[in-house]
Amino acid sequence: MTRADEGRIYKEIINYAKSEENYSYYEIEEYAYLNKPEWYEALHRSHHIRSMVAEYFRGARKKQKMEGKNPRSLAESIEKIEKDRDNEPDNALLFKALGKMHPGSKFIQERLD
């Protein structure tokens, strides 16, 4: 993947997040998994994109809080993903991936058991 591709994908992800007013990395990753294979691949293969998106989202969530908006918590994001996915079999894969990112999360571990 070239830097130009990374830049394009980064812009697409950020524009989508802005249009949805949703800066949950987990929901974006799930959306990419289901709808945008190129984004999903980029988020998993390019540390550069992954860190830029995560950093942007961190700042956007902080700004939302400062403006009095309540960004979704991790638990709320996972709950939304579960509802959106309609309990498809792939949910186990998602929670395994999230479990690796947040090994101490009781919320995620409950869904893996």
Question: What report would you give on this structure?
Answer:
The chain is mainly alpha-helical and 113 residues long. The protein has 2 domains: 1-71; 73-113, no CATH class. It has helices spanning 3-20, 25-35, 37-45, 47-66, 74-85, 91-101, 106-112. Helix 1 packs parallel to helix 4, helix 2 (25-35) crosses helix 3 (37-45) and helix 6 (91-101) runs antiparallel to helix 7 (106-112). The chain starts with a helix and ends with a helix. The relative contact order is 0.12. The model has no long low-confidence stretch (mean pLDDT 80).
Q: How many E strands?
A: 0
| SS strand fraction | under 5%
What series of H and E elements makes up the topology?
A: HHHHHHH
What is the residue-mean pLDDT, rounded to a whole number? 80
* Terminal residue distance: 37 Å
What general form does the structure show? globular
Number of domains: 2
Note the topology:
Elements: H1 3-20, H2 25-35, H3 37-45, H4 47-66, H5 74-85, H6 91-101, H7 106-112
Helix pairs in contact: 1-4, 2-3, 6-7
Question: What key attributes describe this structure?
Answer:
2 domains; globular
Quick structural overview:
With 113 residues, the chain is mainly alpha-helical. Helices cover 78% and strands 0% of the residues.
